[in-house]
What does this fold into?
Amino acid sequence: MRLSVRLGAALAALSFLAGCTGTKLTDSGLNPKDFKTTVDGAETALYTLRNARGAEVCITNFGARIVSLRVPDKDGNFRDVVLGFDNIQDYINVPSDFGATIGRYANRIGGGRFTLDGKEYDLPKNNFGHCLHGGPKGWQYAVYEATHVSDQSVTLKVVSPDGDQGFPGKVTASVKYTLTNDNRIMMEYSATTDAPTVINMTNHSYFNLAGDPANHTCEDDVLWIAADYFTPVDDTFMTSGELRPVAGTPMDFRFQTRVGDRINQDYDQLVFGKGIDHNWVLDTHGRLSTRAAQVYCPESGIILDVYTDQPGIQVYCGNFLDGTVTGKGGIAYPFRAAICMETQHYPDSPNKPEWPSVVLRPGERYRSTTVFAFSTK
It folds into this structure.
């Protein structure tokens, strides 16, 4: 029996049970009641966005996370193309970045420290001696406030106090998710501060464009990146400051290339990360109208095009998934079950003044926009 048939039967059973209890499930089979709880005195919830073409995005305000994302495949059948959990308790109890809004600083800050205006700040060291994704209690574990909700958009706000995870300044940040009628998800980030600080926000969705994480890995996906350079790392995943040409290396995705044809090659960068987990220097020059990257799944025919005004994109191929985390539908997520497309400033930019600045000062506003555009081939 095919997985899609089994899932269809399971969803039908869930729908029947929901009807008996008066609870309406989302199209992806999520029960909104399973996302209601209280964390640190704040209430969590599930928000559902739908467009005129039947696409659906479900978002929880716990970490401002995309929980499910249903888009049509080449045959017009809808598939949920992101990893995640089907209840709030798993998001709370199982450390993960599934679908999360990352802040205050996405990716790594070297040695868990940086200097700003002559003052050094110490941060948590939660990844090989570095600060990763804002620390162990970054914004992916905060409860955001829903300040605007409509059928096709939701705005979620978080207030990060001065000293949060060691970062200076009280920061008020938000992300607005919009699902358009042409199957695009627009993410508009905004932040202000009352003292100089650093900001780098992104979305950390894990995409399985086959909608079948039990059987499909991202090795079969076709990847394209608009980048002549990437930022190499050492064996602790820390950048050196070098911008290395992709030409002549397995990191060259300037032409559409099957991920599996490159990711297992004997190259020091791939050995360090057990595969691809690197930042590419985009050639798009901050133009939101220019495509920055593309992932194509031949099995489903689903294409994900990424547009961003950010200078870089971290591509991560689920190299640390190992089957120990069970997600939606009771599926244990295996090695390389998904690919992440994290638009961002380069890793460790606070310690590399030659790279685009991530400093935010009082009176300024941080703004960033990324679009995930779905189509079929």
Notes: The mean pLDDT is 94.
